[in-house]
Amino acid sequence: MTSASQELPAVAVLTINYNSAPYIGDFLASLEGVGYPNYRLVVVDNASADGSAEEIGRLFPRTVVIANGENLGITGGHNVGIRYCLEEGFDYVLFLNNDTVVSADFLDRLVSAADARTMVAPKTYLHGRPGLLDDTVGDFDWRRGVWRGWLYGKPEPPGFDRPREVSMASLCCLLVHVGVFRDAGLMD
């Protein structure tokens, strides 16, 4: 890392791997193009049996691969990764599904919109279905326990290109300051 990257917040791109061989190459190729200089890919492998953990290390050598002896599921895997990120002193954890493809400037844009009190989720689209949202962000009706205005599989509505506050976002791509985990603890 350059001295300029030392000034930028350190971001751990945390992904859970479980038998991802069919799509991990596209994911890693897109991360190769990311321009943000101060990030590290952290992969928690949940006992994959398809060689994908080894493939990740081969294709993206600067990756930290944490191998679990069993499949701990998404939450258990994330907690293993969060502990690592806290120990290593990262400023942010970016939860990112490993079946995604990202743009070169996505991390710069997320970090510029985040702070210690603001989590950031980008607009995402369904792979191979141009113009249809894969967003699981929006509002949540806490009295009924259901999403309101869920946009999954729908075209982008007017005004959706502006940043806005939401009450719910998934972990498919979510940037979170590590202070959240120091204050609230790990995932249930």
What is the strand arrangement across the widest sheet? 3-2-1-4-8
Helical element count? 6
| Count of individual beta strands | 8
- Structural class based on helices, strands and sheet pairing: alpha/beta
Q: Helical proportion?
A: 25-40%
The chain-level mean pLDDT equals: 90
* Cα shape: globular
Question: What radius of gyration results from the CA coordinates?
Answer: 17 Å
State the major sheet. 5 strands, mixed
Please characterize this protein's 3D structure:
There is one protein chain. The chain has 188 residues and is α/β, with parallel strands linked by helices. The protein has helices at residues 3-7, 24-32, 52-59, 73-88, 106-113, 179-184, and strands at residues 11-17, 39-46, 64-68, 92-96, 137-141, 146-148, 168-169, 173-177. It is built from six helices and eight strands; from the N terminus they run αβαβαβαβαββββα. It has a five-stranded mixed β-sheet, with helices on both faces. It has a three-stranded antiparallel β-sheet with strand order 6-5-7, with no helix packed on it. α2 links the parallel β1 and β2. The longest helix is centred in the middle third of the chain and has 16 residues, at 73-88. The chain is globular and about 45 Å long. It starts with a helix and ends with a helix.
What is the fold's blueprint, element by element?
Layout: H1 3-7, E1 11-17, H2 24-32, E2 39-46, H3 52-59, E3 64-68, H4 73-88, E4 92-96, H5 106-113, E5 137-141, E6 146-148, E7 168-169, E8 173-177, H6 179-184
Parallel strand pairs: 1-2, 1-4, 2-3
Antiparallel strand pairs: 4-8, 5-6, 5-7
Helix pairs in contact: 2-3
